[in-house]
Amino acid sequence: MIRVAGLSKKFGAVRALSDVSFEAQDGRITGLLGHNGAGKSTTLRILSTVLRPDTGSAVVDGHDCLEQSLQVRSSLGVLPHSSGLYAHLTGRENIRYYGKLHGLSGTALDRSTDELIERLGLGTVASRRAKGYSQGERLKVALARALVHQPRTIILDEPTNGLDVNAVRMLRELIRQLRASGRCVLFSSHVMQEVAALCDDIVIISHGRVVVRGTPAEILAASGAADLEEAFVRAADGGVAA
Amino acid sequence: MTRAVRIVFAKEMLENLRDRRVILSAFLFGVLLAPVIFGLTTSLASKRVVESQDRPLHLSVSGVEHAPNLVKFLEENGAEIKTVSLAPDEAMSEVRAGHEDLVLLIDAEYGRKLQAGEPAPLDLVVDTANNQTSSSADRARRLLEAYGGQLASLRLLVRGISPEVIRPVDVHTLDVATPAGRSLLILGMMTYFSFMSMLVGGFYLAIDTTAGERERGSLEPLLGLPVQRAELIVGKMLATSAFMSISLLLTLAAFGVVLQFIPLEALGMSANFGPRVVLAMFAVMLPFVPLGAGLMTSVASFTRSNREAQSWLSVVMLLPIAPIMFAVVNGTKPSALLMTIPSLSQHLLATSLMRGDATPPLHVLISAGTTLLLGAVFVGLAIRLYQREAILG
Fold first, then answer.
1. In chain A, what residues touch B13 (CB-CB under 8 Å)?
2. In 10 A of CB A230, how many CB atoms?
3. Which among A102, B12, B155, B373 could bridge B239 via Cys, Cβ 3.0 to 4.6 Å?
4. Shortest CB distance from B11 goes to which of A50, A71, A97?
């Protein structure tokens, strides 16, 4: 469960976010939609506590991102936009490293790692060094790494960028599984179809402001557009508030 | 050390020990390159010294028959005379071509002018551009001047004048150079190489922990883990320090082996470089490791990419070397005050150890204390820089 209220953030003279508020519920998939540079990554980075907001609050699973950043990081599984692996470690070692830093050890760590490797079909890939991975393999290991501590809330920043169709389908399937197990999933994208195919709730962000939020049906009704893509374009460019 | 620091340290060690590039730069430079370069230059230098000391002066003389006394004098003073017959321009081209080192031309007029009391002409053909013959040329010139001096004294005596009259000043050169003093330059080179390989050993790790993680895109997920950033960077700097220490120890050990094969005695040096000295030098230089790791990590965290970090660090690596160069050139002697300067103090202590001089405990204490203190400052700086938001780039 994520609750964001009145976030604003400046980088020098550039205002990246102003007064961003939204919620992402457990057991639902929430899509953060916007053009490149709209403020999606900044919002997600504030949630994962690597950036601090100038004003406003962000709460993840009841923990404040500013005051209790360590608890927030413990309950979050984050797949940032750039999610590089350690090339000289095997897939399994990459996953275990994050597991250990999340405080796992012994059988709990083994079990969690094995389970993810199996679920993501990483099998033999996991025992190879990450150096020679394909893009799909890299994504799977990065996902496993983000999920190794069984987080309640999952944040994915443009996870489908540059992936082939199979990898995208695998990812969607995994996200639906996470929803089915009651997790809160927040993911960002600049592709409307991506979001429409998957999301229960949509937050459209433009120039650092939330311009529309609601379920797909609510957004269609409010914008009066024929389809979601039209609604997105109008909202993102025109600033129609829902 | 917290659990997270240990985990990060272990992972960095494993990852970097698998990286061929790191292994090559960290251990190849120190263990092979530095001692080999050092061994080659010193054995060349010592060979040169030995040769020029023992070698007789080879002097080709044209017109021996015109000056038998002079030739006898030269032979008595250690010159090996080779009789040749060359015209002046022939002699010049021979020397220029390098067929002859030196040629002394004795003019046919020599005997007559000498008897007449006029300056008797002697031509010494030398090539000053040729370094290898310049010391021979000096020796020949000194011998000829000595002979001239003898004749002058005799002439004065014949006229009842004391030769002292034409020697208003009496210059004695007292050479106080001790064998150890002469070896200072070479010993300075050794600590220089040791510092270099220590820093090179941590070079890639310092870059990898900051600019490298960022460029690879692994920094952001790492910072999203429930671990204090200070724990991450401390674990990384510990791994950097471990590589630097290993590199330093291996380099010193390699020097220990190489020095067994270099004729240091010929240079007038005592080869005081057993295992105990190696370990003592390691102990004396070790306090510099955290300083180097903190300095390199701090600088690397300002840079935006691997490449930028590499070019900056190459410059930064020269910083600790500068005081050593200064000391070597000036022949600086250890003092309590100088022990407060990191890298210089390690150099001076290490040099003392190699020379078998005393290393006062106070000096060791001041050196370690000030170096560790400055190291703590740089480690603290690196930790602070890691807290910035801008670290994400």
1. none
2. 14
3. B12
4. A97
Reported ipTM: the value is: 0.91
Q: Are residues B197 and B157 in the same domain?
A: no
Q: Which residues of chain B fall below pLDDT 70?
A: 30, 45-55, 174-185, 263-272, 393
Is A50 close to B227, i.e. CB distance below 8 A?
no
The parent domain of residue B123 ranges over 57-174
Say yes or no: B150 and B233 in one domain: no
A207 in Cβ contact with A197 (< 8 Å): no
Model confidence pLDDT, tens digit, residues B233-283: 999 999 999 999 999 999 888 888 887 777 666 665 655 678 888 899 999
Predicted structure pTM score: 0.78
Decide if B45 contacts B262 (C-beta within 8 A): no
Cβ within 8 Å, pair B220-A80? yes
Nearest-Cα residue of chain A relative to residue B223:
A50
Contacts of B371 (CB under 8 A, 6+ apart): B287, B288, B291, B342, B343, B345, B346
Side-chain half-sphere of B178: how many Cα atoms within 13 Å?
7
- Chain B residues touching residue A129 (CB < 8 angstroms): 18
Tokens of B220: 């952001």
| Cα A120 from Cα B177, distance rounded (Å) | 75
- Residue B37 and residue B68 in one domain: no
Show Cβ contacts of residue B326 under 8 Å, excluding neighbours closer than 6 positions: B332, B344
Q: What is the pLDDT of residues B209-238, one digit of tens each?
A: 888 998 888 999 999 999 999 999 999 999
Q: Which of B11, B224, B389 sits opposite A76 (nearest CB)?
A: B224
Residue A106 has a pLDDT of 94
Q: Hey, what CATH class is A2-82+153-238 in?
A: alpha beta
Looking at the structure, do residues B65 and B154 belong to the same domain, yes or no?
Answer: yes
pLDDT digits (tens, 9 = 90+) for A161-208: 878 888 888 899 999 999 999 999 999 998 888 888 899 999 999 999
What does the pLDDT read at residue A240?
A: 44
Q: Are A101 and B217 inside 8 Å of each other by CB?
A: no
